[in-house]
Specification:
464 residues; 3 domains; 12 strands; alpha+beta; 18 helices; single chain; Alpha-Beta Plaits; 14% strand
Length: 464
């Protein structure tokens, strides 16, 4: 009698030209849709989270160490900490791959921005000044994002026959600049062009000085006043462009150029650390504080702290999407409940016969719960197959939707990725399948329990 409930459940599920068969198919489709959508959405969100973190690690400094009192500044009464000595100390730490000086802010602590002159306007870009050294791990990983130009693999020579830095090389030894491909496109410039670059503070000062020139002054005095107005500018050669979709929109200049533009003399904004394991950046830095390798007058910010709000937003969106899509599974389980209610009503006479023959209540319940379990199992398998199929053609579907509607469902400006990523976590799959089956079994349990409590005499009388 152990296999009897399962045998009867299969018998009740045989395709027949009846209303029961129709709602059974609808129940399976409901489960399939719920599982398929959950698999697709959760895989895309998981892939986006993984790729976004990987992208940040691939171009952001792992840790930025900065003095809390400005460039080489210290509170009164304490011995100043030389950044060069601190750099050596940090570079010797076993978890540090490289420690290099960077310039990313002005003396006043404002973000380092340069103003680049284009054909018809001035546009600002956030930049970081880097030292071009062989052991600069940040520089080495940024080079992986260079966008190749059609002539990027050819060396050029000047009139004297001397080799010149070829376009497309991330070389920060001379007066040069590296920009994102998107920003270069906006400026309508290409690799090898020379750009006129201004210090943002100098431009602001220039505007202020111009405003102070009296409008009622004669032309000679106005000309003399304009001659006294100065603006710090420099010609920088665009030596490479970086992929904006993988390396962000920041620009890069040699360390000495940034020091000059941001009025830092020989000082720096901080020391950039590349770690062996960037995922443990926070624990590594706390260990440095505990061991005294990092002075208390210096602070740090990890790549996760810099983008904490965005990373937390990704996690929250994933959680909210899980709960929203869970309602699809609830709807599917309600369909299964309706199917079970219909079957128990149609099979009321048979239930009465089985009960009269001595079948126990739990065996009656097992018949209809098994039926719901089979529906759930088939729906889950179909949902997994459908979900993985759509995942396989996700970027093709995106292209077709863009072609038909003109709208991008995965815009790079929001998600920072040029293609839709996907990563299926086995734990998510187990959770999705388990939840689907559990909801279907629970939905079938309630009407099955009521059906098992029917009086045999009443059931036979009503069924007859």
């Amino acid at each position: 009698m152990t296999s009897a409930p399962f045998f009867l459940a299969l018998r009740y599920l045989r395709p027949t030209r009846s209303f029961i068969s129709v709602i059974t198919v609808i129940s399976m489709l409901g489960v399939m849709l719920g599982v398929g959508v959950l698999v697709f959405v959760m895989s895309v969100f998981s892939g986006w989270q993984r790729e976004f973190r990987k992208m940040l690690i691939g171009f952001e400094p792992h840790v930025m160490v900065q003095s809390m009192f400005g460039p080489n500044g210290e509170p009164a009464g304490e011995k100043p900490v030389d950044w060069r000595e601190l750099r050596k100390t940090l570079a010797q730490h076993p978890d540090v791959v490289s420690a290099v000086p960077v310039v990313s802010h002005t003396r006043e602590g404002r973000e380092g921005v340069l103003v680049v002159e284009s054909e018809d306007s001035l546009q600002g870009v956030s930049v970081i000044g880097l030292v071009d050294e062989p052991d600069n791990a940040l520089l080495q990983k940024l080079k992986k994002h260079i966008r190749a130009d059609k002539d990027g693999d050819t060396e050029t020579k000047n009139e004297k026959g001397e080799a010149v830095t070829r376009p497309g090389d991330f070389d920060l030894k001379d007066d040069c600049i590296v920009l994102s491909d998107k920003f270069a496109k906006e400026l309508k410039v290409k690799v090898g062009d020379t750009l006129v670059v201004y210090a943002s503070d100098s431009v602001n000062q220039f505007i202020q000085q111009v405003r102070e020139i009296p409008e009622d002054a004669d032309s000679k005095k106005r000309a003399e006043a304009f001659d006294k107005v100065t603006v710090l500018s420099k010609d920088l050669k665009l030596v490479a462009t970086l992929r904006g979709d993988t390396a962000g929109q920041r620009g890069y200049v040699p360390l000495h150029v940034a020091q000059e533009f941001f009025s830092l003399d020989s000082n720096i904004s901080g020391i950039e650390l590349e770690l062996k394991d960037p995922e443990n950046a926070e624990s590594v830095m706390k260990g440095m504080y505990g061991s005294g390798a990092l002075p208390e007058s210096w602070s740090y910010s990890t790549w996760e702290q810099q983008h904490g709000m965005m990373l937390e937003s990704v996690k929250n969106q994933s959680t909210m999407m899980w709960f929203i899509l869970l309602f699809i599974m609830l709807v599917a389980s309600i369909c299964v409940m309706n199917t079970t209610i219909t079957v128990t009503v149609k099979k009321r006479r048979e239930i009465g016969i089985l009960t009269a023959l001595g079948t126990r209540a739990w065996q009656i319940i097992a018949i209809f719960v098994s039926q719901a379990g089979i529906v759930a199992f088939v729906g889950v398998l179909a949902g997994l197959a459908g979900g993985f199929f759509v995942l396989g053609i996700r970027n093709w579907l995106r292209g077709e939707i863009i072609h038909l509607t003109g709208r991008d469902i995965f815009p790079q400006s929001i998600y920072y990725l040029s293609s839709i990523p996907a990563h299926t976590d086995p734990a998510d799959l187990i959770a999705i399948c388990t939840t689907a089956v559990a909801l279907c079994l629970l939905a079938a349990l309630i009407p099955s329990w009521f059906a098992a409590r029917v009086d045999p005499a009443v059931a036979l009388r009503d069924g007859g």
